[in-house]
Design goal:
Elements (H helix, E strand, L loop, with lengths): L32 E3 L5 E3 L2 H18 L2 H5 L4 H22 L3 H7 L5 H15 L4 H6 L4 H6 L2 H11 L2 H12 L14 E9 L2 E8 L16 E8 L2 E4 L21
Antiparallel strand pairs: 1-2, 3-4, 4-5, 5-6
Helix pairs in contact: 3-5, 3-8, 4-5
């Protein structure tokens, strides 16, 4: 028997689930041994274990359960990405705080007009959306750095999901379109898996119309989920190609008054 238990699984004896203040990070346990008739144990192939984790992650994503989905992510890789994103946001903030006097002190041969140009340019860059805001929905990098890693994972998954992006596009377009009508993403099915030592590549695709079937001219390539094994458990690596969308287009009909 193969058991897939997410990090969020926890005993709630004597405590109502509604009163739990925070999710407890547990361990995804894979029962890698199954009894056979002789009473000995047989190791379940890595391909089956990795596929089970991948399927659980995809099911949680389709259901829009970001807390459940993030529990299958490789948190070590996610933490490295968080630290890099915070560093990028802070370095961008440092660039935008450059002053004319500071530049001219650093380079005494620099004309004031050139220094003013660089300061103006750096401020224009700083006005754009910060990298941490784009990835996690929070503009302040220090706030992102203090978030629990479970929250970081859930926010990262949600902000890159097609439903969230569609709702944002509807809001920004001022289109009279009910947000609740945003369609649920299509189901997925697995095509195969390749396991190489502690790394697995899971191929899957979304159920699509006939226009995008594999034999069609405009067919889409399968998605590849990368999983890593650590201590006999498989984890989904956080990668941008986990998401199906390349952009959101909203069609809005506006009737003249």
């Amino acid at each position: 028997m193969l058991i897939v238990q997410s990090r969020n699984s926890a005993s709630t004896s004597g405590t109502s689930i509604a009163t739990i203040g925070s999710w407890v990070r547990g361990i995804i346990r894979l029962a890698l041994f199954a009894p056979i008739a002789s009473g000995s144990a047989q190791r379940i192939p890595d391909s089956i274990a990795a596929r089970a984790v991948g399927a659980s992650f995809l099911n949680a994503m389709q259901a829009g359960d970001w807390t459940a989905a993030q529990a299958f992510l490789d948190h070590a890789a996610l933490e490295r990405f968080r630290q890099w994103a915070v560093a990028q946001a802070k370095s961008r903030s440092t660039i935008s705080s450059v002053t004319v006097e500071g530049l001219m002190m650093a380079d005494t041969a620099l004309p004031r007009a050139v220094a003013e140009y660089y300061v103006k340019r750096s401020k224009n860059i700083g006005r754009g959306q910060s990298f941490v805001d784009q990835e996690f929905g929070i503009a302040n990098p220090d706030s992102v750095a203090r978030l629990p890693i479970d929250t970081v994972g859930a926010r990262w998954l949600e902000l890159h999901d097609e439903r969230w992006l569609t709702r944002r596009a509807i809001r920004e377009s001022n289109c009279p379109h009910p947000v609740d009508s945003v369609a649920r993403p299509p189901a997925t099915h697995q095509l195969g898996i390749i396991v190489a030592d502690s790394v697995a590549y899971l191929l899957y695709e979304f159920d699509v119309s006939e226009l995008f079937r594999a034999e069609a001219v405009y067919s889409r390539s399968p998605h590849v989920m990368l999983l890593r094994r650590d201590r006999d458990a498989w984890w989904v690596l956080p990668r941008s190609d986990l998401f199906s969308t390349m952009g959101i287009m909203i069609s809005c009909e506006v009737r003249p008054k």
